[in-house]
C-alpha cells in the first residue's frame, strides 16, 4: 500500500471500531482487521496465535493474541476498561493488563519471550518495549490512528528495534500539518459541488485552490523547520515575523515574505525593511509560483501557527524519511497526482546552494 492508501485504511478502521468493542466477542476481529487492512499482513489467521496456552501455578491461562514472527503479546480488554487499572485475576492477584501479560510472558520458553507487549481496550493501544529496563507505554488513541499507524510497524516487521523519539516526533509533526491543512481549507471556501456536476470553470477553480492549499502548507512547514534548524540564521525568525502582524494583515505578510524568499539578496530593494531583509534567498523554486492563492487568516490559524506549530514544537528533531511519508499522506492526494504538490524534503533543505545569504 502507498502511504495515502494506508492512511485511508486507518481512517476506515477508526470509523468501523469507534465506540465499540467487547473483549471476548470482538477482540479477534479487531486485530485481524487492523493487521490485514491497515498494516498489510497476509494470511493473518495462519500467522497469529489466538488464545495461546500458558501454565501458571498449575492452572492453564490463555494469551489473547500472540504473534510468533515478531514476538508480540497482546492483552485485550473491553471498551471502557482502564489500561492502567488493576483487575482481580485468578489466584486473588490484582494486576494491570500489562502486568497480566508480563506474567504470561514469564512462563513462555526463552525463544518465545515477548519483544513487545501490547495492551488494548479498543479505544486505546498501549505499546511496551520489553527491551527497556522499565517499560513505559507509548499510547495511541483510536482517533489518532490515521496519523500514528507507523508506530505499529513492529507488529509486522521484525527489523523494527525501537519506537524512536524521532518517529514519535515526526508523527506528531504530521498531526500538526493536518491541523494547518484543515484550518486553511475552510478559508478557501471551496464550493460543495459533486465533481460530475461541475462546470469546466468550477473544476479549474477548485483544483487551483487545492494546489494552492498544498503549496501553502509546504511553504509554511519549510519555514517552521528552517527557523528551528537555524537555517534562517537564528531561531524563531518566522514566528517573530508573523507575530508582529494583526490577523487581518497576516495574508499580506506571507505574500511579502514568500516573494523575498524567492528573490536573490543582490536583487532586493536596498531600502527593504529589516524584518524582511534578514531572511535568506531560497533557491530551488519552492517560492517561485506567485499564482498561489493565500486566503485570509483567522485568529485560530494565527494561534495555531505561532503556538502549536512553533512555540510548542521543535521541527529540527524530525526524521526526514518518516516525516516525508506522513507529510505527503496528510496533504490532498488528488493534486499530488496532478503535479500540484511540491514537497521539499528535509534532506533537500540541507543541500548546498539551496540557501544563499
Radius of gyration: 25 Å
Largest sheet: 6 strands, mixed
End-to-end distance, in Å? 42 Å
Mean pLDDT: 86
Shape: elongated
Count every helix, treating DSSP H or I runs of 4 or more residues as helices.
14
How many structural units, i.e. domains?
2
Reading the helices and strands in chain order gives HHHEEEEEHEEEHHHHHHEHHHHE
Low-confidence stretches: 335-355
Helix content: 40-55%
Strand order of the largest sheet: 1-2-3-6-7-8
Number of strands: 10
Structural class: alpha+beta
Beta-strand content bin? 5-15%
Assembly level? single chain
Characterization of this structure:
With 357 residues, the chain is an alpha+beta fold. It folds into 2 domains: 153 residues, tt1808, chain A (Alpha-Beta Complex); 190 residues, no CATH class. Helices cover 45% and strands 13% of the residues. Strand 1 and strand 2 form a beta hairpin. The longest helix is centred in the middle third of the chain and has 29 residues. The two termini are 42 Å apart. The C terminus is likely disordered.
Blueprint (SSEs and pairs):
Elements: H1 3-17, H2 23-38, H3 44-47, E1 49-56, E2 59-67, E3 72-76, E4 87-89, E5 93-95, H4 97-105, E6 116-120, E7 124-129, E8 138-141, H5 145-148, H6 165-188, H7 200-228, H8 237-243, H9 247-261, H10 274-277, E9 281-282, H11 299-311, H12 320-330, H13 333-337, H14 346-349, E10 355-356
List keywords for this structure.
six-stranded mixed sheet; tt1808, chain A; single chain; 10 strands; 357 residues; alpha+beta
Amino acid at each position: 500500500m502507498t502511504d495515502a492508501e494506508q492512511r485511508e485504511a486507518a481512517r476506515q478502521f477508526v470509523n468501523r471500531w469507534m465506540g465499540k468493542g467487547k473483549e471476548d466477542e470482538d477482540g479477534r476481529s479487531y486485530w485481524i482487521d487492523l493487521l490485514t487492512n491497515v498494516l498489510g499482513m497476509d494470511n493473518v489467521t495462519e500467522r497469529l496465535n489466538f488464545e495461546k496456552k500458558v501454565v501458571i501455578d498449575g492452572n492453564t491461562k490463555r494469551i489473547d493474541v500472540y504473534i510468533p514472527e515478531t514476538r508480540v503479546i497482546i492483552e485485550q480488554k473491553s471498551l471502557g476498561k482502564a489500561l492502567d487499572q488493576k483487575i482481580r485475576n485468578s489466584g486473588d492477584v490484582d494486576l494491570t493488563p500489562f502486568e497480566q501479560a508480563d506474567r504470561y510472558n514469564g512462563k513462555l520458553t526463552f525463544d518465545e519471550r515477548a519483544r513487545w507487549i501490547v495492551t488494548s481496550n479498543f479505544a486505546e493501544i498501549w505499546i511496551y518495549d520489553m527491551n527497556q529496563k522499565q517499560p513505559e507505554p507509548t499510547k495511541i488513541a483510536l482517533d489518532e490512528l490515521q496519523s500514528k499507524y507507523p508506530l505499529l510497524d513492529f507488529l509486522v516487521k521484525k527489523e523494527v528495534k525501537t519506537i524512536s523519539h524521532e518517529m514519535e516526533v515526526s508523527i506528531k509533526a504530521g498531526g500538526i500539518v493536518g491541523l494547518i491543512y484543515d484550518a486553511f481549507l475552510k478559508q478557501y471556501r471551496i464550493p460543495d459541488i459533486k465533481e460530475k456536476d461541475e462546470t469546466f470553470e468550477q473544476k479549474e477553480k477548485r483544483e487551483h485552490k487545492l494546489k494552492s492549499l498544498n503549496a501553502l502548507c509546504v511553504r509554511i512547514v519549510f519555514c517552521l523547520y528552517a527557523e528551528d534548524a537555524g537555517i534562517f540564521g537564528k531561531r524563531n525568525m518566522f514566528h517573530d515575523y508573523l507575530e508582529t502582524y494583526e490577523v487581518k494583515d497576516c495574508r499580506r505578510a506571507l505574500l511579502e515574505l514568500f516573494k523575498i524568499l524567492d528573490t536573490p539578496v543582490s536583487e532586493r530593494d536596498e531600502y527593504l525593511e529589516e524584518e524582511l531583509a534578514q531572511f535568506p534567498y531560497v533557491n530551488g523554486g519552492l517560492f517561485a509560483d506567485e499564482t498561489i492563492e493565500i486566503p485570509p487568516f483567522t485568529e485560530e490559524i494565527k494561534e495555531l501557527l505561532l503556538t502549536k506549530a512553533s512555540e510548542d514544537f521543535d521541527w529540527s528533531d524530525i526524521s526526514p524519511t518518516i516525516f516525508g511519508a506522513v507529510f505527503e499522506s496528510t496533504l490532498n492526494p488528488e493534486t499530488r497526482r496532478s503535479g500540484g504538490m511540491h514537497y521539499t524534503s528535509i534532506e533537500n533543505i540541507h543541500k548546498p546552494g539551496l540557501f544563499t545569504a
